[in-house]
Amino acid sequence: MTELDREQLTDLLAQQWEIMGALVKDLDEAAWRRPSPLPGWTLFDVVAHVIGTESWLLGETPPQHDPLRPKTDVRTLPHVRNEVAVLNEIWVDRLRPLSGKRLLGLFDEVTERRRAALVALDDEAWAAPTVSPVGQVPYSRFMRVRLFDCWMHELDIADGIGRVVNEGGPRAELAFEELTMSIGRAVVKGAKAADGSRITFDLTGPVTRQLNVAVDGGRGSVVETHSGEPTVVVTLDSGLFARLRGGRTTVADHPGEITFSGDQALGDKLIRHLAFTI
């Protein structure tokens, strides 16, 4: 895992929030309510979710429910599958009555307070064990997850409004560490790759890398290189890989954008079982 100090990670988070805000600043009210790639969420909801999470990290609770609005039992929604999702959905639901313009103002205000809060943290707080979507981890580790989450939501917003954004650079490189960390589980538990399988994901950019996974003893592990020829090489661009891993799209929506060398049947199973959720 790439080593980052507090200042570097804080700067990357601040950049990420600024870029997200810039993406939506010119949207009219109708555009705010367009569907995003995430089931059940509009572009407005994506931004509301980020506000909710960062507000929660500031120690705040969701706004009170407006008694004039029908109350939604968020636990019954098909895309709500765990307690983290329940909290996310409550924040989103409570913010929905706002206009897009007011939501953007709140986003700017909350993320600026979060940036200031991160700057003010000392080394002890940065290293303190913290409950997060990936378990109890140092606060610094949680902030890496926050960068990943916000980076993915930048793609959600861009895709929702049909805008091309820069999907490379330092923020993307760090996000890909989250995307690749548990790839062995997807290979074994999802695609059922057999022991002895040697798999290479060849990502052609803008995040360029070869991701090698070896399956032994019922476990898939990321390795630096394979000692022999891979069982299958799966070639695709990093943007599509990220969206498949994040459950934002399906293989059927991207004919001709993925190629295989070697065991094509295994390759096909691999790309159909990439999705994971933090």
Low confidence ranges: none
Share in helix: 40-55%
Biggest β-sheet description: 5 strands, mixed
Relevant CATH superfamily of the largest domain: dinb family like domain
- What is the string of helix and strand elements? HHHHHHEEHHHEEEEHEH
Supply the helix-strand structural class.
alpha+beta
End-to-end separation:
17 Å
CATH-derived architecture of the largest domain = Up-down Bundle
| Multimeric status of the protein | single chain
Number of domains: 2
Strand content: 5-15%
Q: What gross morphology would you assign?
A: globular
Strand order within the widest sheet? 5-4-3-6-7
The CATH topology of the largest domain comes to: Four Helix Bundle (Hemerythrin (Met), subunit A)
CATH class category name of the largest domain: Mainly Alpha
What's the helix and strand layout?
Blueprint: H1 6-24, H2 29-32, H3 43-57, H4 83-95, H5 100-120, H6 123-127, E1 129-132, E2 135-138, H7 139-161, H8 170-181, H9 183-190, E3 198-204, E4 208-216, E5 219-223, E6 232-236, H10 238-245, E7 259-262, H11 264-272
Parallel strand pairs: 3-6
Antiparallel strand pairs: 1-2, 3-4, 4-5, 6-7
